[in-house]
Specification:
The complex is a heterodimer of chains A (about 425) and B (about 525). Chain A is α/β, with parallel strands linked by helices and about 425 residues long. Chain A has 3 domains: about 110 residues, no CATH class; about 130 residues, Up-down Bundle (Glutathione S-transferase Yfyf (Class Pi), Chain A, domain 2); about 120 residues, Rossmann fold (3-Layer(aba) Sandwich). Chain A has 20 helices and 7 strands. Chain B has about 525 residues and is an alpha+beta fold. Chain B folds into 5 domains: about 90 residues, Uridine Diphospho-n-acetylenolpyruvylglucosamine Reductase, domain 2 (2-Layer Sandwich), CATH 3.30.43; about 120 residues, Uridine Diphospho-n-acetylenolpyruvylglucosamine Reductase, domain 3, CATH 3.30.465.10; about 110 residues, Alpha-Beta Plaits (2-Layer Sandwich), CATH 3.30.70.3450; about 120 residues, GMP Synthetase, Chain A, domain 3 (2-Layer Sandwich); about 50 residues, no CATH class. Classes of the chains: A alpha/beta (about 425), B alpha+beta (about 525).
């Protein structure tokens, strides 16, 4: 586990007061809920409004490509002050808050985090704020059309619809594992996010076979649903909770103690959203596969030996590097692979990098995602590499598209490790 | 829900013409767009936010588009406020009369890096840190380094004639910007500079560059600039020294400046109130024994052999003046912190020692070294008086920074915490009066009201005519000649008086002399 923040068991510094709910425990919009929202966020928002340093701006992936000050982390905070003053309503604000990938760079760069952080362990929580505003909008029936449809389809299919013409339903959620002979249930469960399960199937196949190579026992869920994280990110909190409740019940029914996660977005859901929903009752250990693999290599249980003749750089996924402080293990894995020429860019420089896919931006504004990915791949191209290695399936589609224009392959870290372990992965990396 | 946001007063005709120039994507009228373009650091009592909200915002992508927008505004007599980073500390980017905000952030392209002549040409919407990320590949640096380095933009540096932390070695914005394209209030585009676009010294004609820097957006909009580049320094030396009292630190800082060390890039003096404040509310920043009451830090940049030699000399001078070196870790870390974050914890204390959220208000002046002790004493006295009256004010101490390599003058700064959520109109008036007094002390000491931020905030702005003497009348004439309809950031620097009491053009200055 890297420095900065712990993963599972991380206690939020500010606990969220119960959102306004109706008799059935469902969230409910209206003036009282708005007042609760303002009361919760006013001091943090005021700290940002009054200092107005705006260090967050140039590190923000959306700001970098749009240059629009309305879509900056500092504006997202200041609007709350305007709301308190009676000058703005959620209807005025909601569309602006689409323009955020929830990457967390702004929080790291905020002087209020850096300075008062020293004294009070205060951290500016822009990601939480954006989620709260999106939730307030949904609860008040202010919807973004793309997100509304995405979440309706997710609700119908129990999985995200996944971009493009990919068939998604419960029957096919384990198709990626064909021929791998993975049991159902057990203490260790491999959770495969929607993008990897239905689209980039090479990724879960690589992970599963590496685990098998190391002799690490694991199974699959009886009935896996979407983790619910995307719904929470877009403001559909009740739906997120329903999905979380299903998954937790399913884990318990099969005696699961440990969930293995290959997707950084799931890792956020299971270590931040689920504890919020379930509190002390949440007793499941969450293991990030990329950390586990680094450990297995260290212990000699995995020995990459097939040389990979590529010149690579590593893309720090935002949710690992910026939100969880996990950046050393992926580098450890890459350095263990023979033949690779690894041109690293430090994690702090990468605070301002992003694929642009996160938190639903790719659904509502794919052109912004493409621009952000393009900028990221421009930085890679300057290094004269032929390959960019990522550790996040959601980043890999837009980065691959931007990479193909620049003749740079985008490869998942688990896949490249499997190759060096002489595993024939199978599956597919694109349509 | 009904909200109280001000309704846009710009006519549909103006809106339509702007959309024709820029397309609808870059003409913004939403309440959030307009409120975001009012914000500057520690701006005003929060309940007055709505008083300064513009009618609409445009985001042009080229000099020609800026010029077209200004022509539309001039034709219809609509106020125009240029906005770059919006990080200035004198409210230059705050619209006083609503109107159109021209936000130049989209103009952030690097058009050329001229490796032979060591210049680059950029859109003014680019940030210095971002520019330096690109220049680093060429082993070059653009050394304009304000505390707002991660967020301020080249255009705002031109509009305020910015001051740089390492200006004692590399010069300040005025020295680093060679030339720029500039849109006058009538929409005419001119190029301003030291002669040709890339020359650094010219004796040809009037030297207009200074005039079009530091005007706080009252004379027009810079759009594209050519900058002077330096080799990226091989080495940095950034010692921190501790002293038991202000006087020894004060003598040391000038001895360092007097030493004539070529790599010397600046020195900063922390007074006793500043150290006490940091100790009280930011213990992690400076965990020092109680007899540490004042600090000096210095920084040198250059080639490694030169920095090493200079460092030896600076260390010897400091030691001879009774300084105690704080060690490499603190020195490197704290110097980095000056670049990376404002040294302000954003909370203060009431007189009863209760911690409360406060925002940072920073008053700056240019003061000769000999006058620093006097200014220090009087400024603290002014802040003590207002704190005595109202518990929402806190004295966060003072910094003094060398402006030049010779020690001639210092950017002198007092940081005041204000618990703005408690602020009443009466308290705000008292603060404005205190600011006027602070500026008055700077002038009595033979200094300037501002070395760094500009001087058009309430209070201090009243004394600008006094500081400039007859020069202020020239300012009025220039304003009226270039901006006949008073559309360019109107209401700043008292320049309305160039147009007479009713703003109809029959102007007289404050001193009663005819100016038109």
């Amino acid at each position: 586990m890297a420095d900065q923040e712990s993963g599972s068991g991380n206690e939020p510094l500010v606990t969220e007061p119960p959102a306004h709910t109706n008799g059935n425990g469902h969230r409910q919009g209206g003036p009282e809920q708005t007042a609760e929202f303002v009361a919760e966020w006013r001091n943090a928002a005021y700290n940002c409004f009054s200092s107005g340093h705006k260090f967050c701006r140039e590190v923000c992936p959306v700001t970098q490509v749009t240059r629009n000050e309305s879509w900056t982390p500092t504006a997202f905070h200041a609007n709350v002050v305007a709301m308190e003053q009676g000058d703005m309503a959620i209807e005025d604000m909601a569309a602006d808050y689409v323009n955020c990938t929830q990457c967390g760079a702004c929080e790291l760069r905020c002087p209020n985090t850096l300075f008062t952080g020293d004294f009070y362990r205060f951290r500016t929580k822009t990601v939480e704020l954006v989620k709260a505003v999106r939730a307030l909008a949904v609860d008040n029936d202010v919807h973004q059309p793309g997100w509304q449809r995405w979440n309706q389809l997710t609700d119908q299919r129990t999985h995200e619809p996944v971009l493009g013409e990919v068939p998604v339903d419960q029957e096919h959620v384990r198709d990626w594992a064909d021929g791998l002979d993975i049991p159902i249930g057990g203490e260790n469960i491999l959770f495969v996010d929607c993008e990897a399960a239905f689209y980039r199937t090479s990724l879960p196949r690589a992970v599963a076979q590496i685990l098998q190579t190391a002799g690490y026992e694991f199974g699959l869920m009886q009935e896996q649903w979407c983790c619910g994280g995307p719904a929470a990110e877009m403001g559909y909190v009740d739906q997120a909770r329903r999905f979380a409740e299903h998954n937790l019940a399913n884990w318990r029914a099969s005696g699961a103690k440990r969930i293995l996660v290959l997707d950084p977005h799931d890792y956020i859901s299971f270590t931040e959203e689920y504890p919020k929903f379930f509190g002390d009752d949440y007793d499941i250990e969450i293991v990030l596969v990329v950390e586990l693999f680094a450990e297995l290599i260290r212990e000699g249980r995995l020995t990459p030996s097939v040389p990979i003749e590529r010149t690579v750089t590593y893309h720090d996924p935002c949710r690992l590097n910026k939100r969880k402080g996990i950046w050393s293990e992926p580098r450890e894995i890459l350095r263990a692979i023979p033949g690779l020429e690894f041109k690293d860019v430090d994690r702090v420089t990468q605070w301002s990098y992003c694929s642009g896919a996160g938190a639903g931006l790719i659904i509502e504004k794919p052109e912004l995602t493409a621009a952000i990915s393009g900028r990221r791949m421009d930085r890679a191209a300057e290094l004269d590499v032929d390959t960019l290695v990522s550790a996040c399936p959601w980043s890999e589609r837009p980065l691959s598209e931007a990479g193909s224009e620049r003749s740079i392959d985008v490869v998942d870290i688990h896949e490249i490790l499997a190759e060096s372990l002489d595993i024939e992965v199978g599956g597919r990396t694109s349509t | 829900m009904t909200t109280t946001a001000p309704v846009s007063q710009v006519s549909d005709v103006v809106l339509e013409e702007l959309v024709q120039v820029l397309g609808s994507d870059h003409v913004l009228t939403n309440v959030t767009d307009r409120y975001a373009r009012t914000r500057v650091p520690a701006p005003f009592p929060v309940h007055r936010w709505r008083d300064y909200v513009p009618d609409l915002v445009v985001m042009p992508g080229s000099t020609e588009e800026v010029a077209e927008v200004v022509r539309v505004a001039n034709r219809h007599r609509v106020p125009v406020v240029p906005r770059d980073g919006g990080t200035g500390l004198t409210d230059g980017a705050r619209p006083e009369r609503r109107g159109i905000v021209i936000d130049v952030k989209r103009m952030d392209q690097i058009e050329e890096i001229d490796l032979q002549n060591r210049t680059c040409t950029v859109g003014v919407g680019i940030n210095m840190l971002k520019l330096n990320e690109v220049l680093a590949a060429h082993n070059l640096i653009y050394p304009d380094d304000p505390a707002s380095y991660p967020c301020s933009l080249v255009g705002g540096r031109i509009g305020t004639s910015g001051w740089s932390l390492i200006g004692s070695r590399f010069g300040h914005t005025r020295d680093l910007v060679l030339s720029f394209d500039f849109v006058l209030p009538t929409g005419r585009v001119i190029r301003v500079g030291d002669g040709g676009p890339k020359t650094s010294k010219s004796s040809s004609g009037y030297q207009l560059k200074h005039l079009f820097m530091g005007h706080q957006g009252t004379l027009g909009v810079a759009t594209r600039a050519t900058l002077k580049l330096f080799p990226k320094p091989e080495a940095e030396f950034s010692p921190f020294w501790a002293f038991t009292d202000f006087d020894s630190a004060y003598r040391t800082v000038q001895a360092l400046a007097h030493a004539g060390v070529a790599t010397f890039a600046g020195a900063v003096l922390f007074d006793e109130e500043k150290v006490a404040y940091l100790r009280r509310d930011d213990e992690a920043y400076i965990p020092q024994p109680g007899d540490v009451r004042s600090l000096v830090c210095s920084v040198a940049y250059g080639n490694e052999d030169e920095v090493r030699a200079g460092a030896k000399r600076l260390m010897r001078i400091a030691r001879d003046h009774g300084a105690r070196y704080l060690g490499d870790e603190i020195s490197e870390g704290d110097w980095a912190a000056r670049h990376d974050r404002y040294a302000t914890p954003l909370h203060g204390r009431t007189r009863a020692n209760q911690v409360v959220p406060m925002s940072w208000h920073c008053e700056d002046a240019a003061i000769n070294w000999t006058q620093l002790p006097r200014v220090r004493q009087e400024w603290h006295r002014i802040v003590a008086r207002i704190r005595e009256r109202f518990d929402a004010f806190d004295d966060w101490g003072m910094f003094f920074y060398t402006s030049a390599s010779t020690g001639v003058d210092y950017l002198t700064e007092i940081d005041v915490g204000i618990w703005e959520q408690q602020l009443s109109d009466e308290m705000w008036e008292a603060w404005v009066e205190a600011k006027r007094d602070i500026a008055g002390v700077a002038l009595d000491a033979g200094g300037s009201i501002s070395a760094c931020h500009g001087s058009c905030r309430e209070g201090e702005v009243d004394l600008v005519p006094t500081e400039l003497g007859g020069g202020y009348d020239v300012m009025l004439k220039v304003k009226r000649a270039l901006d006949p309809n008073n559309i360019m950031n109107p209401g700043k620097y008292g320049l309305d008086r160039a147009y007479g009491p009713s703003g109809d053009g029959a102007g007289t200055s404050e001193t009663g002399k005819e100016v038109s």
